[in-house]
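Much of our argument rests on the idea that a fold can be written as discrete symbols. The record that follows shows the chain in one-letter code together with its fold in token form.
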Amino acid sequence: MLQKITSYLLFGNLYCGIEHTSIGGKETINTTILKKTKKELNIDNIYQFNSIEDLSEAIPKNTHAFLILNNENVLTKKVENGQREAVKLVHQAFPNININDFMYEVLVQNDVHFVSICRRSYIKEVIESYKSKRISIINLSLGNLIVANITDFIDEKIISTANAEIEISNYEISRIESSQTIDYANYDLNGLEVNSKSIISLSAALVSALETHKSTTNFESEKRQLKTAYGHTVFFRKFLTFGLVFIFAALIINFLVFNHYFNKLKTLEQSAKVNQNIKAQVAGLNEKVSKSQKMVDDLLNNNYSKSSYFINEIVKDLPASVQLKELNYQPLLKRIKAEEAIKSEEEVILVSGESTDSNIFSDWIALLEKKKWLSKVEVTDYADISTRRADFKFKILLSHD
């Protein structure tokens, strides 16, 4: 499972096979792209161009591809013997070559073998040409030997490619004959419809997808280097993309969090200002209340003992015919209002009530006038309310002593 995920992240679901060949002496690039969907492989696109540049404009950027070099720079020979060692087969097919200057691919079969060779310098030059157009070559094959990988999927005994005719016997290649006058045909490879021009590139794409390759080469290390370099490129590109996305996401999250807390801080600052204003108002009100309370307390504390004394002096000689209704010590001059000082009539006691005997009332008043703590008694009202009762009001002016 992990291998499948790693493979998908590295190679995706597109597999590209490129045949770099020549038809009629003219460079031709045959390309087939397979798309893997679930467990099925389907042809996504088939192209034929006359230059790598034209191909690079048609396929997705940074595409990885299996390259088949199949032109006049590749030589292929048939060897018939029981030898199965690749190097010896190369020397038998090409006895006079300096093997260090060439890359070779050997298709080892039962009795009939095929050897394809190409100069290293030319192969590197072609790979660099693709690389410069942002097409990453990750695998390589020479000539028409890649067809050996599809013999199990095709029923035809004769297969035509872009520049050769291939004969198949018992699922093995028995003959490869070069030709520039090919009768092109259509083939069915296990449900994939393809013609002669594209069968080599399709075979390469299938080998990439199925990871099956029957031949032996002396450039396995070069292929590993190509695949590793592509892996590094993909990792760097995806890591860079992921890094940029991560940084952008982090900036967005940071902005949202900062904006959230900034708005929250702003709200708290506004609330703090409102609270400070309310606190200042409350402090002002508390100060006013404290002053008022102090005034009231001072007034009460100052008058409590005196008022008790005066009330006691007034009522101790109170006749039975006199009934008091009100005894108000230092009455207020006006109603208490906010923002206004409390004003009272100092050194004054207001007394009111009822009397049933005017003579006794007069005697009581005369008795009060003799008190040393008062200076004067002023009767402000004495009115009969019936034949036996009268209402009275009088004011006592206290002495300053």
Notes: The radius of gyration is 59 Å.
